[in-house]
Design a protein that fits this description.
Layout: E1 4-5, E2 43-46, H1 52-63, E3 74-75, E4 89-95, E5 101-107, E6 110-115, H2 118-125, H3 132-149, E7 152-156, E8 182-187, E9 197-201, E10 212-215, H4 224-241, H5 269-279, E11 293-297, E12 303-306, E13 330-331, E14 337-344, E15 348-357, E16 360-362, E17 377-379, E18 386-391, E19 398-402, E20 411-418, E21 422-430, E22 438-448, H6 465-468, H7 488-491, H8 511-514, H9 534-537, H10 557-560, H11 580-583
Parallel strand pairs: 4-7, 4-8, 8-10, 11-14
Antiparallel strand pairs: 1-3, 2-9, 5-6, 9-10, 12-22, 13-22, 14-21, 15-20, 15-22, 16-17, 18-19, 18-21
Helix pairs in contact: 3-4
């Protein structure tokens, strides 16, 4: 990004996510760091509601090279703390003792000019909240957080037996033993309307490079959210101490916005990208198989997730608190590559997935007048075209590659069979030429290979009897010779249609499993009744639909039908005259005048 410039008008890119190239000096002095000799000022963090005229004046002064042909900062990667772009850096920090005189003209009529009051002020504020140990621990948490998210590491320095450094004059470089590269002090900010200045910080360099000064006149002991007000201000200021510039718009989503926000805890997605652009992710250097980050032993059923807080186990989980779209893995530059190693103890199938992490958002610069530019929409998930290789135990031979998706898409090497035990490697790299940071997630899953002699978590006697032994009832899997009838503990309760005639099923309610009904099978099925199968359907009763034993058209016409002469019963409308076969021979007095009867011999 050499040569990218920022002016004070219109929509402008934040470039390499705020990594800033600029010389550092106390106002009135000048340094040469690849640019003209120009007096430069620190970068200021404002409280919400600060007078816009003060913000404009201080910001314009801070830019230092006031609108020479519309040019403000020049972006590059060379003026970070010493070391190549994207390489890790060890830094030291210390607290100035009270009395170190600090004098800085912030511009716009704002300045500091007095002895540091850090210890007396903070000890007083925290007197009822655990004292000095409490507030120093909050500073330590800020540096720990930046270290957990980027390739920076920090060591606190002090003189023997004290909590402060050697008290060298303001602007003295770190000495590696009793004075940090980054020194922190506190003085009141002077000037009309300047009370909204929370703190300021110098960019990296010798002398005042990295120095942080807090404004005495704020309640730094506000305990809400574990002192988030204090921690976010210190984290913001040290962001400048890492060479990260202000980012716009000011919408309360990014730590490095010009105005403080406490709606989140520490660096967010954009801030992580900026920090990792400058100093790499926490696993740098990991640019070769010799420097590979080891993920441990992978077995069947294991899933290892690296970078994010995604579901799965991880030897290096994302540090709390979680960050939306956060990751501790990234490719920070063109030509960057990350190596990982993992061990298998025998043949194993592995699946490797690399997924870009990011979203579409506005990442613009701060204008020369202190206002926030807007409109530079980026898709941070599509910065780099991620590719992935699986490399053999020799560290050279590429076994498989996935590189088919464009930038913004994930890549997967699926179910690759590793033939034997050993330490294998994964290489993540890009297929395009990114000039910004691409966060990503790495996911590695193992599945057993049947026949390797090990019954892996994904294998059972059912799908791999060679490794897990013969299938038996009670082994937890429903094998080819088992069903819900003969092994419900493995196969579950019987249901009609499962192929076996189980408890509660018969040829009537489930003929598909139990076969067609037959008389004597215990159920009264279709085609059976109490007449043709009393064993299944029970004894006949009038009204059961069949004319059974003991029933006739006289005593059960509903089952046996209407009476007819000759049906064996003397029914209604029948008598010995019209049906002597059913009703018998006529006799005098039977109600009908039959054969051999007349009015003489049977007047009845």
């Amino acid at each position: 990004m050499q040569g990218e410039r920022r002016s004070g008008h219109g929509h402008h890119s934040r470039g390499i996510h705020g990594i800033l190239l600029i010389g550092i000096a106390v106002v009135g002095a000048a340094v040469t760091r690849g640019q003209d000799d120009i007096p430069l000022r620190p970068v200021v963090c404002f409280a919400p509601g600060t007078d816009p005229s003060v913000v404009q004046a201080v910001t314009q002064a801070g830019f230092g090279r006031a609108a020479r042909n519309g040019v403000a900062y020049v972006f590059s990667d060379v003026n970070r703390w010493p070391g190549p772009q994207g390489s890790p850096k060890q830094l030291t920090w210390s607290l100035m003792p009270d009395g170190v005189f600090i004098s800085v003209d912030l511009g716009g009529g704002c300045s500091v000019n007095g002895p540091s009051e850090l210890f007396s002020r903070m000890d007083s504020l925290f007197a009822s909240q655990g004292g000095r140990a409490t507030w120093i621990a909050r500073f330590q948490e800020v540096f720990d957080r930046w270290s957990a998210l980027t390739g920076t590491t920090y060591t606190r320095l002090s003189v023997a037996g004290q909590d402060w450094d050697d008290g060298a004059s303001f602007g003295s470089s770190g000495n590696g033993s009793t004075r940090g590269d980054i020194r922190i002090g506190m003085v009141p900010v002077l000037g009309n309307g300047c009370g909204g200045i929370l703190a300021f910080n110098f960019f990296p360099g010798s002398g005042v490079g990295g120095e942080m000064v807090l404004n005495t006149d704020f309640n730094w002991a506000s305990a809400a959210n574990n002192y988030r007000f204090l921690r976010n201000v210190v984290a913001h200021e040290h962001g400048h101490g890492l060479l990260i510039d202000h980012v716009s718009p000011d919408n309360g989503t990014k730590l490095m916005e010009p105005f403080l926000s406490t709606s989140f805890d520490g660096p967010t997605h954009d801030d992580i990208r900026a920090g990792q652009r400058g100093y790499g992710d926490p696993f740098e250097p990991d640019d070769s198989t010799a420097q590979a980050t080891h993920l441990g032993i992978v077995a069947g059923g294991d899933t290892i997730v690296m970078g994010t807080g995604g579901t799965g186990s991880s030897p290096f989980p994302f540090p709390d608190p979680p960050v939306s779209f956060g990751s501790i893995l990234s490719l920070d530059a063109d030509g960057e590559q990350d190596y990982f190693s993992f061990e298998v103890t025998g043949p194993l199938s592995v699946t490797i997935t690399v997924t870009p992490i990011g979203f579409s958002y506005d990442s613009s610069t701060q204008a020369l007048d202190g206002s926030c530019n807007s409109g530079n929409i980026i898709d941070s998930a599509a910065i780099a075209d991620l590719n992935v290789d699986l490399i053999d135990v020799d560290g050279v031979t590429v076994l498989a590659t996935s590189a088919g998706q464009p930038a913004g898409g994930g890549e997967t090497i699926g179910n690759f069979a590793l033939p034997s035990a050993g330490v294998y490697f994964v290489r993540v790299y890009e297929g395009n030429n990114p000039s910004e940071t691409q966060l990503y997630e790495l996911r590695l899953s193992g599945a057993g290979l049947c026949g390797n002699g090990v019954c892996d978590p994904t294998e059972t006697p059912c799908n791999c009897p060679t490794d897990c032994g013969a299938d038996v009832c009670g082994d937890g899997c429903c094998g080819p010779t088992e069903n819900a009838c003969n092994c419900p503990s493995d196969c579950g309760a019987t249901t009609c249609g499962d192929g076996c005639c189980g408890a509660g099923e018969d040829s009537c309610n489930c003929p598909g499993d139990c076969g067609p009904t037959t008389c004597g099978d215990g159920c009264c099925g279709a085609g059976e009744d109490s007449c043709n199968c009393p064993a299944d359907c029970g004894p006949t009763t009038c009204g059961d639909g069949c004319c059974g034993a003991g029933e006739d058209s006289c005593n059960c016409p509903t089952d046996c039908g209407a009476t007819t002469c000759g049906d064996g019963c003397c029914g209604a409308n029948e008598d010995s005259c019209n049906c002597p076969t059913d009703c018998g021979a006529t006799t005098c007095g039977d109600g009908c005048c039959g054969a051999g009867e007349d009015s003489c011999n049977c007047p009845a």
